[in-house]
Amino acid sequence: MGRNMDNDALNAMLDDSLLTG
């Protein structure tokens, strides 16, 4: 479950970077 949580966090960060990028 920890991995899934980490992946979600990374995906959120990537999404934010793409939106703001």
What's the structural blueprint in terms of helices and strands?
Elements: H1 2-20
Question: What keywords describe this structure?
Answer:
rod-shaped, 21 residues, single chain, mainly alpha
Would you give an account of this structure?
- With 21 residues, the chain is mostly helical.
- Helix content is 90%, strand content 0%.
- The protein is built from one helix and no strands.
- The longest helix has 19 residues.
- It starts with a helix and ends with a helix.
- The mean pLDDT is 81.
Provide a concise account of the structure shown.
The protein is an all-alpha fold and 21 residues long.
H/E series: H
Count of helices?
1
C-alpha geometry: rod-shaped
Give the low-confidence spans: none
Largest sheet: none
C-alpha end-to-end distance:
30 Å
Mean of pLDDT:
81
| Total strand segments | 0
Structural class: mainly alpha
Strand content: under 5%
Helix content: over 70%
Rg, nearest Å: 9 Å
